[in-house]
């Protein structure tokens, strides 16, 4: 499934698309909510790897407004539980991810993103 933790690492890699290619924008996304085991230590360790503005905009595209615009100074359990929900429990099952630069579409079907490119699209 496409979760926002994965989406936060994906960028367009079409030929010639080297700038403004992240984050991929969701379109026609169908989501499901699935419980996942909460691991605060993992979240604290993973926080430096997150592109926070991209995560916020992507979560809002999917209808979730629970995270603050800025990372709070105190990473308490309430905040970490909210972050966990956004990163792990919101899953995109169907839809499209679109590059903000070149508009290349990456389809999501049965929760799996098709990131493969045709031969003429490979850099």
Automatic annotation (TrEMBL):
InterPro entries: Trm112, Trm112-like. One of its GO terms (molecular function) is protein heterodimerization activity. One of its GO terms (biological process) is rRNA (guanine-N7)-methylation. CDD domains: Trm112-like. Belongs to the TRM112 family. Interacts with TRM9. This is Uncharacterized protein. It comes from Mycena chlorophos.
